[in-house]
Specification:
Layout (H helix, E strand, L loop, with lengths): L1 H16 L6 H8 L5 H8 L8 H35 L17 H14 L4 E2 L5 E3 H4 L19 E2 L8 E3 L5 H9 L4 E10 L11 E11 L4 H16 L5 E6 L4 E10 L16 E10 L1 H6 L8 E8 H9 L12 H4 L4
Parallel strand pairs: 1-5
Antiparallel strand pairs: 2-4, 3-4, 5-6, 6-10, 7-8, 8-9, 9-10
Helix pairs in contact: 1-4, 5-10
Bound molecules: phenylalanine.
Length: about 350
C-alpha cells in the first residue's frame, strides 16, 4: 500500500509539472477527484486489517495534501506565465508610427508672410483684439455716424464703464494709430492678428479671420515705395514672375487709397477660373496714410508721409493652396488639415 501511494504521487507530480492551464482541472479530477486514483486507494483502506489501517490512512491523507498543494502551486505558476505573455514585448514586430501633427495652413502662411517682411526690415508687433472704438474707427478718420462704418460690421463688447465704446477689432488698422502714438518715425512694422466681423458666413467670409497690417512712415515715403514693397511681397510668396497693378479704391484712413492686384499665379495672366478670367487677383487694400491720421497721432504731415496696407491671411492661404472655401479653415476636419502636414 505504501509503495502504491508513493508511485502514484510520483507519477501525478511528474505529470502535473507539464500540465498547461487548460488541463489542470482534468489532472485534479483524475487523481484527487471523487473517482480519482488516490480516492480509489483511500477507499481500499477499509479492507485492510485493523492494525494496518491507521498508518495507511495517514499516508493517504499526507499524499492527498501534497497533491492538492502541488496543484495550487502549479496553478499559480501557470497563471503568472499567461499574464506575463500579455505584457511581453515582441521586439520583432514593426514599431508604431507616431502620429505627428502639423502646422495649420493659416499659421504656415502667417509665418511665411512674417519672414518675407522681416527680410526687408519690417518688425512684427502685437495689438489688442479687444479694442476701443477710438482706435478701431475714430483715430482712423472714421467718426461716429460716418457712412464708411458700414464697411465693417462690428461686434461690440459690453463695458458698463464705457458703454458702446468697446469692440472686437474689425481689422488690424487700429495698430497703425497705436504704433505711431508710441514711436517716432521712421517706422516699418507689420501687425499680424485675428479680427472679427459680424458677417453672414459664406465661402469667402468668416466672422473670425486673420489680417496682416503693414505700415511704413518716414520722410519722403511715396506710392512708389508701396508699390515696390507689394511687388516684392507678391514675388516672394507667389513666384518671381508675378506682376502688380494698383487700382483706385476708398478707405477713410488712406489718401489716395488703392487695391493691389497681382497677375494670376495659376494662368500667369491669360485668364482662368481662379482669376475669374481677368488675369488679375485682388490681393489687399492699401494707400498713403491720411494726413488727418498722421496729425491725429501727433505727426507733422508736411514732414512725414507713410503707406499702409492690410491683407486677409486666409485669402492669401486660399490662393497659395487652391482652397475654394474659407470655411474649411476653422472646421477642424482632419482630412482637410492633414493635407498641409
Ligand atoms: N483695414 C482695411 C480693411 O480691413 C484694409 C487697409 C489697411 C486698407 C491699410 C488700407 C490701408 O479693409
Amino acid at each position: 500500500m505504501q509503495d502504491q501511494i508513493e508511485q502514484l504521487v510520483a507519477r501525478a507530480l511528474e505529470e502535473l509539472a507539464g500540465t498547461p492551464a487548460a488541463d489542470l482541472d482534468d489532472w485534479r479530477r483524475r487523481y484527487t477527484g471523487r473517482s480519482g486514483e488516490l480516492t480509489g486507494i483511500l477507499r481500499g483502506i477499509g479492507k485492510l486489517s485493523a492494525g494496518e489501517r491507521p498508518l495507511a490512512g495517514q499516508l493517504a491523507n499526507a499524499a492527498r495534501q501534497r497533491l492538492e498543494s502541488a496543484f495550487e502551486d502549479r496553478k499559480t505558476v501557470v497563471e503568472a506565465e499567461s499574464s506575463a505573455d500579455v505584457e511581453a514585448i515582441d521586439v520583432t514586430l514593426p514599431g508604431y508610427r507616431p502620429v505627428v501633427g502639423g502646422l495649420h495652413p493659416v499659421t504656415q502662411t502667417l509665418r511665411d508672410i512674417r519672414r518675407v517682411f522681416a527680410n526687408i526690415g519690417f518688425r512684427a508687433v502685437d495689438s489688442p483684439e479687444v479694442e476701443w472704438d477710438e482706435y478701431n474707427f475714430e483715430k482712423l478718420n472714421i467718426p461716429r455716424d460716418h457712412p464708411a462704418r458700414d464697411m465693417w460690421d462690428t461686434f461690440f463688447v459690453d463695458n458698463p464703464d464705457r458703454p458702446g465704446e468697446m469692440l472686437l477689432r474689425t481689422h488690424t488698422s487700429p495698430a497703425q494709430a497705436r504704433v505711431m502714438e508710441q514711436t517716432d518715425p521712421p517706422i516699418r512694422i507689420i501687425t499680424p492678428g485675428r479680427c472679427y466681423r459680424y458677417e453672414d458666413v459664406d465661402a469667402s467670409h468668416e466672422a473670425t479671420f486673420f489680417q496682416v497690417e503693414g505700415l511704413a512712415v518716414d520722410t519722403n515715403i511715396t506710392m512708389a515705395d508701396l508699390r515696390g514693397t507689394l511687388e516684392y511681397f507678391a514675388r516672394a510668396l507667389f513666384g518671381e514672375d508675378r506682376r502688380i497693378r494698383i487700382r483706385g479704391s476708398y478707405f477713410p484712413f488712406t489718401e489716395p487709397s488703392c487695391e493691389a492686384e497681382m497677375s494670376c499665379h495659376v494662368c500667369g495672366g491669360d485668364g482662368c477660373r481662379v482669376c475669374g478670367r481677368t488675369g488679375w487677383i485682388e490681393m489687399l487694400g492699401a494707400g498713403m496714410v491720411h494726413p488727418d491720421v498722421l496729425e491725429g497721432v501727433g505727426y507733422d504731415h508736411r514732414k512725414y508721409s507713410g503707406f499702409a496696407f492690410g491683407m486677409g491671411v486666409e485669402r492669401i492661404a486660399m490662393l497659395r493652396y487652391g482652397i475654394d472655401d474659407i470655411r474649411h479653415f476653422y472646421r477642424n476636419d482632419l482630412r482637410f488639415l492633414r493635407q498641409f502636414n
